[in-house]
Hints:
There is one protein chain. This protein is α+β, with helices and mostly antiparallel strands. The protein has helices spanning 20-31, 73-84, 112-125; strands spanning 10-13, 43-51, 56-60, 90-99, 102-103, 130-134, 139-142.
Amino acid sequence: MKKINITSEIIECSNEELDPKDKELVKSAENFLDHAYAPYSKFSVSAVVLLDNGIILNGTNQENAAYPSGLCAERTTIFYANSLYPNNKILTLAISAKYEGEIVKNPITPCGACRQVILETEKRFASPIKIILAGKNKCFIINSIKDLLPLSFDDEFFE
């Protein structure tokens, strides 16, 4: 038997400590929150991606009365980016949320399905995606989804 230690690197900072480009992405995510369709949970999520061609795209969560039929903001945004710009990698993903009209105090993290899609996108372009999770009180910066999904399932299992 062997013990394996897994470590993740997550940077915590105030919103003011973000670099100017990251602040712009977080602000864009916050401004786009009103585009979410969240009539049931009242929990709106917005995701913004910066592509390597400089284009910024926004997306939001989309709920449905049949809950499994909805889609998270992260996947909506990534699928949108990959559809419009299939040859451009995502450099940064910023995520913001609000509940009942107020931006959440602490950052939220992507669900498991979204983590898997982010992982697939990193693998597809052989490039890590910087993830900024923004709350009212602080932000988390993650340099790769592998820090949130350390024992991940990917194409290496098909070999």
